[in-house]
Amino acid sequence: AKWIQREINEREIPKVTLSGREYSKPKIVMKVDIEGSEYVVMPDLIVTGAICQFDLVFGETHNNLTPLKFENRSLSFETKTSAQRYEEALFKVLQASRNCPVRWRSVDDESYLHDGKALPPSEMTPQQLAQRGPKLSL
Question: Which residues of 70-98 are buried (b: 16+ CB within 10 A; e: fewer)?
Answer without folding.
Answer: eeeeeeebeeeeebeebbeebeeebeeee
